[in-house]
Amino acid sequence: EEKGILLHNGASIELVEAGNSLAMGMDADMESLFLRACRLGLVDEYCGMAVATNVQDILLGIPGPVTINTNLTVIDRHKINVLVHGHIPFLADSVIQAAEAYNSSSHSGPDINVLGMCCTGMEVLMRNGLDFAGDILQQELAIATGAVELIIIDIQCTQPGMVAAVTASGMHTKIVTTDPMSKIEGTEYIEFKAENAATIASDLIDMAVSNYGNRAHRRVYIPKDKPSEMMGGFSTEAILAALDPLKPGDPVRALVDQIVAGNIRGIAAVIGCDTPRDTYGYRTVELIKELIKNNVLVVLTGCVATLASYHGLLKPDPTYPGVGESLAAVMGAIAKANGLEAIPPCLFMGACVDNSRIEEVVNAVANKVGVRIDQLPIAGSAPEYIAEKAVPMGFWTVALGIFTHLGDPPNVGASARVVKWLTGDVGEGGAQDIFGGRFYVEPDPYVAAAKLIEVIEEKRTALGI
């Protein structure tokens, strides 16, 4: 508090002051700027992600465990395929209802097949059980199948290259943008307004049906690989409900007991995007494999979950291949207590905005044990981050006191002072000394996993467990 690190104001004041501090002739103190970045990270969580998740839960329902199929092979050549894409699920929910109404009505052509993509897809996956067509790096590939009639976009992670993909390939896919903050040249713009949601959704379904007649069926190519199976929908409420049979009335204690006993060595949150910088999914998948092999429970949000699903890491497999013996035993016991065959060792908690669910679980564990978050055997990782929003998310986790791994170095390497403040260990006068958390940069997933496990074990030792 002496350094001004606590939030005393609301989001608006913090944002305005941050903008002013970056103007010419204003804040030129490195630590002052980084502490402000940490405050903005907290604003992003408490005034952004947490609020958005709670509002979506209120209006659309709290997610629960559901098993669906993932990958481009969920696109059906025998149906009219509509992709809902972006980060705000309200229009998508209306589109699903309109599609269900169409499919249950009398019609001469194929049924509608609504599929999710990116975070909007993850939201409808969890709440509606829709299959998931792909992540941020697969949107042009979906168009290239030649079997997608309509892509409905709200905001974020939508690539303008989709338009070029349609133009260059000569495919029939129509792309509709719906938010004034996220227009793309070459798309049709139909602004979404909540009061007209049902009408807009119905019109979009009619557009997809009409466009099906323009499909060049001879050009359709959908990979023959089987879709991947994925269990998701692990909201905070769903996790507590799953744990409750192990210790009725005190589900958090059930989790704590497994951590104290060493059956779960710790918890690692792996979040964020996937990157085109190297082999598709390599960093994320190998990192997760190393963690679960060493009995670290992994929780996931964002596109990294897509990658995990493609490699069977979110499949409810009772043999638990590649999973540490004690972690596998715990997940098997939880599954059995809930009448399930298996629960995967990686819990998919939702879209990027649902990072707030992770903090809910972490807070509950810290409160139950009676320690600070920075004392818990936990760690965070964004092995393939690419979006700007990863920056405030990173400062949020560091401000919580969480050791935070980044798979790529941020653009600050030219300053040794900056690097030291962000990544320095205890006694070096940076984030670690102030918050108990710091950044750690390592592109190699094996080296990164070893470091995360080392930090988790150090936390266990300090707690005497």
Notes on the protein architecture:
There is one protein chain. With 465 residues, the protein is of the alpha/beta class. The chain has two domains: 72-219, Rossmann fold; 231-463, 3-Layer(aba) Sandwich (Rossmann fold). 45% of the residues lie in helices and 14% in strands. The chain has 17 helices and 14 strands. The strands form three sheets. It has a six-stranded parallel beta sheet, with helices on both faces. α4 (118-128) links the parallel β3 and β4 (132-134). α9 (251-260) crosses α13 and α10 packs parallel to α17 (445-463). The longest helix is centred in the first third of the chain and has 31 residues, at 30-60. The protein is globular.
| CATH hierarchy, class of the largest domain | Alpha Beta
Sheet with most strands = 6 strands, parallel
Terminal CA distance reads 31 Å
- Overall number of structural domains: 2
How many individual helices?
Answer: 17
Q: Over all CA atoms, what is the radius of gyration? A: 23 Å
* CATH architecture call of the largest domain: 3-Layer(aba) Sandwich
Note poorly predicted spans.
Answer: none
Strand numbers in spatial order across the main sheet: 4-3-2-5-6-7
The structure class reads alpha/beta
Which term fits the overall shape? Answer: globular
Strand percent estimate: 5-15%
- The percent range for helix content is 40-55%
CATH topology of the largest domain: Rossmann fold
Mean pLDDT: 96
